Amino acid sequence: MSSNNTDAKIKVDAYFNKEQPFKQGIAFLRKIALNTELTETYKWGAPVYTINNKNVIGILAFKHHFGIWFYNGALLKDPKKVLLNAQEGKTKAMRHWKFLAVNDINKETVTDYILEAIENQKKGIEVTFTKNTDVKIPEILTGALDKNIDLKRKFNSFTPYKQKEFITYINEAKRDATKLNRLAKCITLIQDGIGLHDKYRK
């Protein structure tokens, strides 16, 4: 076992061993996942299960519920109508199956959903994203870049994808005060050469 795999296992075990209200529930989901051919690893602070190095599901516990994230859940048949888009408007692919108690989990049904997700991933069936090239740079960002040559140079050094993340982050703010706060955050990251979501890409 490589050091990376050992490190992931330690983190996964710590996640499941942590004392919290849904410890029994996520342990049951883990057992179901491990009875399939999925590989257990650790990403973004939680257990993630992959096939051929592609993310299939994640198991997470929150304050008031726990559940499974299906990374391409939008493509599942969902006969029980249990899958939710917990980030409406922010994700086209991911779906969440929420549980409130371990007794809510039907082993056979959950297994069927996971097996379908595995087969889809094996076949390369994934949600495709169309590129939106019509992205307007907010005036407050343009103004900040024009006033600081070094800042503008650093912004231009980012890939178009990362530039778009900064632009979208500011544009999505509804209030002017929020836009300014987000601009300040973006400027700090740009100055440090850090992308908006780089910490999630480790």
Automatic annotation (TrEMBL):
Signal peptide: none
Residue span(s) of domain YdhG-like: 26-118
Name of the protein in its database record: YdhG-like domain-containing protein
Organism whose genome encodes this protein: Cellulophaga lytica (strain ATCC 23178 / DSM 7489 / JCM 8516 / NBRC 14961 / NCIMB 1423 / VKM B-1433 / Cy l20)
Taxonomic lineage: Bacteria, Pseudomonadati, Bacteroidota, Flavobacteriia, Flavobacteriales
